[in-house]
Batch of 4 targets.
Target 1
Amino acid sequence: MSVVATPSRGISDCKWNRSAGAHNKIHMRAVVTGGGGYCGYKLGCALANIGASVVLCDIHKPMWLIPNGVAWIQTDIRDYNAILAACEGADCVFHVASYGMSGTEQLHKEEIESVNINGTRFILNACKQQNIPRLIYTSSVNVVFGGLPIEDGDEESLQYFPIDKLVDHYSRTKSIAEQMILAANGSPLAGGGILHTCVLRPPGIYGPEEQRHLPRLAKIIERRLLSFKFGDPTVKMNWIHVENFVQAHILAAEALTPEKSYIASGQVYFIHDGEKSNLFEWLTPLFERLGCSKPWIRIPTSFVYASATFMEHLHSILRPFVDLPPLLTRNEVQNISVTHTFRIDKARTQLGYHPLKYDFADSVDHYIKSRPQPSNYYLFLNILLTLIVTLVLFFLSLRLDSLSALHFFKERRHGPA
């Protein structure tokens, strides 16, 4: 285990936007798991800016500058002794770390389970052993969404989607981990006192320098692999800007204190920007900045779902030799083609959450200006390889048994058993 509090490569704006919520200076030692990633890093910077001493725990070093008041400890979430040491003396833990959210990672089941379930178990045990009274868990809307429409769902009316009906291991493990966090609320600490926990459920996250969704979407669009669209044009979903994500987490930590009457203790909150949009319309600025036409060809969702099913099977067969990234997974097809929107009234009322308005186009502009430009030769090879793979998948998927498509519609017509 190593501790680093010196600048890293890259530059990122770490200033906390105080207009996103009134926060007085605080004095606490906060541990942020997944602190080497975009959201964890931004949260750590914001906490430091309001007076907290922050430890970022991650197996990878942040790619941005590490500011004063923030230290990075190289920590594997699957190593209990390392977690225990990193949490020593902490007042609050933000458990942001996870694995398997999108792309190829979604298909790495062993890694997903070891990080999302075992890692969460280690965090809970460390909090109890190190007498840490507050734990905020970053969950996902996918614990309640499994491909059936949800319009303005709330925390009280929505039940967990049956785990055996979820099509991806990430959502399954996040559901299990979330329930572990809530079950631990009220647990006694080793030195006396009580553990107070709460859960935040964000949708997809965006913002300047976001490294997961935007770069992947840009590559897919530039390779002309998103020249089609699918799903009903009225389908809506929510997104959350990283600054609103940060605001909600800091407010949740405050709501687990006696000053706030522990109002968030044992509670779950949906958080997002307060808006809903169709994915293909929301991506308009990205198509425009990349100089690509918006998709106008609409193909059946059943075909896309069947193709995603085939690509997942192909990935599992080829993984011992090559980690072939699927264009889309079944979970991603569901997220794009089925409405799932949520109310944030509870977060507004109990936490004082007030999301600020952000424009996705600003994040796109930042990405376009800062991304490295590939050579023409590399770009040509990349496009050629992608085209070949796509054509092979297309023709093979035509031979896929129609049961995948029938299953897709059957699940959505009748719902989970």
Target 2
Amino acid sequence: MFLAKVLKSSAILVMSAIIAGGFNAQRTAANPLASAGADPNEWHFTLTPYLFLPTSTEGTSTVDGSSASIDLDLGDILDLLQGALSARFEAWRGQFGIITEGYYVYIEEDVTLPGPAEVNLNVPVKQAYISLMGAYRFHEGRTSRGPYSWDVSGGVRWNSITQDINITGPARATSLGGTETWFEPAIGLRAAYELSEDWTAGARVELSGFGVNGNDLQYTVLTGFDWQAWENVSLRFGYQWYGIDFATTRSGGRFAYDVDQHGPYLGASFTW
């Protein structure tokens, strides 16, 4: 029973780290990273640190053949999470762009089981991913309110998940879990629509995995707004849905994640 609880805690820490980001849609349809009047023949850059705050996380985690159901809210995750770093970078010239995104998190929890024979559990969890995608602006236009644009992207994502459960007792010490790394193809579609001089609405869909290296499917759906607070700085907020269905077999047994999350996201974009 306690092992299932530990699996649940460590799995959701990994899941809270795996995903998110803004739609990275800026004020002009000519280029999602350029300010009005920018030269389309010049390179334009945007860096967006962000947070994803899942209010609901449901699914199943499996380590060494033992599975645990997951049903946590944002408070549960914040109680467990120690820290994380995530950012998205885009470089555009004309209709073509390069997008890279990275995330890293490290969590470690120590638990002591009471009883005549004291047992200590150490649960370190690390997760990282780096994605690299090429992008193309395939359509843009203008309505009576303002310009709009559509982008398509494709590339590769590298994933790494470490979940260890180290058990130490008077009789013996043992470890469960381990590290899984894999590459997967990724595709994306993004739309942006300028509502006013300072406000832009946007949406983004990304899919990856497609059965490659054990990852059946990984998806991200975002919708939200960009507020141009200053000339080169905008604030982004909205709502995100994310899911992953990953499974493989290790020497100790099945290692799997099948999790769905949703909740608000927040970000700040710096453009130059």
Target 3
Amino acid sequence: MNLENSREYYGKVLSESADLRTDACTTAERPPLAVIKALANVHADVKARYYGCGLIAPSAIAGARILDLGSGSGQDAYILAQLVGEHGEVVGVDATPEQLAIANAHLEWHRETFGYAKSNVRFVEGDIEKLDELDLEPGSFDIIVSNCVINLVGDKAKVFADAHRLLKPGGEMYFSDVYSSRRVPQHLLTDPVLHGECLSGALYWGDFLKLSKAAGFTDPRLVKDRPLGIGDPRIADMLDGIDFFSATYRLFKLDDLEPECEDYGQAVVYLGTVEGEERVFTLDKHHLIERGRIFPICGNSWKMLSDTRFAEHFQFIGDFSTHYGVFAGCGGGLPFAQAAGEDGLVAAGCC
């Protein structure tokens, strides 16, 4: 039901983003300046068929090779194509022919608009539950992104496992999706409208953490989140008692990350050299690192900076020779803010 309904809903039921009946598949936050400038260079037809729920433009991606899962009409791919530059590459995978037709129709228009000698974007028709059946080389991508798509598929564990397989060591999956405060009842899972609006397929946040860790992403990091509103009274009544959230996570492919945030007495100093984050670098929602300040950090966070593309932007203090126990404040519980404006009730990583 999942793939067929997605093709029907996004290919035929919806003709533009204004047709959505909830704000689950919309973006509420103001983009960074670089993204605003890049969005201005995206064709109007592509923007009209955009159904993402968050921003998937990670920092420090110049020259990167990026895979976009569920690329749709191509808006995110065309934004990222500008941010990676002419020597980077973006590959989009989508299963909806109507969306792919729009994305492909404007390849040359975007190449000319970007001023590139040749296009650095290509789109592939395929099911993101079957990435192993596509011509994608394992360990060949620096970053994998996805925008409000994983909730639409049935075998989410397979998507995470394939993403881990396709990433280079030190690469990351950076994606936005919809999550729920409890598991959606079985009888609602096949409702075509709830599914198409990114609600019935939303992962219970606890199940997401289990699936991502089982795929090899040992320490998922929450970057940002917001509660979702359901304006349609019928849909709201069907889902009464369940809270939904749009959240952006980053999952690093790193060996030897530990299950808990462990304290080795380490610290970092941010050099202020990431474009767009010159004053404060955001590793995740609980690690906002000011330029020039000595910032105590756990062993996992150290590796997320030292063993990735971010290493050149930091000075590292300490090593792993002495263990001082777990960082205080790390624990479970709903990680998302429960109302607009909240910063979140429980830390998702080390404090």
Target 4
Amino acid sequence: MLTLKVVVVGSCACGKTTLIRTFLRDDVRDSAPAPTVQEVYVGHMQHDGKKVRLVIWDTGDSDLLCDPHRASCYAEADVVLVCFSVRDIFSGSEVPTRWATEVRHFNPNVPVLLVATQMDLREDPVTVQELAQIKCRPTSVAEGLQLAQKIQAAHYVECSSLDLASVRKVFESVLHTCLRVRSVLCCSIFK
């Protein structure tokens, strides 16, 4: 069975753990997870009739600039999901300055998927009003795509833990990205 190591990073409370738990439960239960220190989950997907094991490392909510526990997670990762919330301007601003830099430092060749979480809040009147009061607005799709290009992400995907199809799309992107990278590596070995 193919096993893929997936590391998930992002600012505190941007929706990392909820994304993972929604995928694993295959259910959109509305629950507020407790802050995570570091957890490792195992999920499965099907590809061409074969089972693929995803070992998902939830790096938690450490705000240390370079948490030594998180740093060790990057070793042998097949893909890193860099998450940010569309409603939190700070989490988006940390993508290039903190998360992409950290990933590239510890595992320079790993593919990165940029994941915008909480996309349902982009059109939420309360969220829009709260952000307008501080002269901000939710991150747009175009801004997310620009951010993905800036950090040279392999893919950009948006999701909401309230929309199971969008959560599944994140992990389908993980699978396709990893398989594409492995295919390229495999083919280049035999050239």
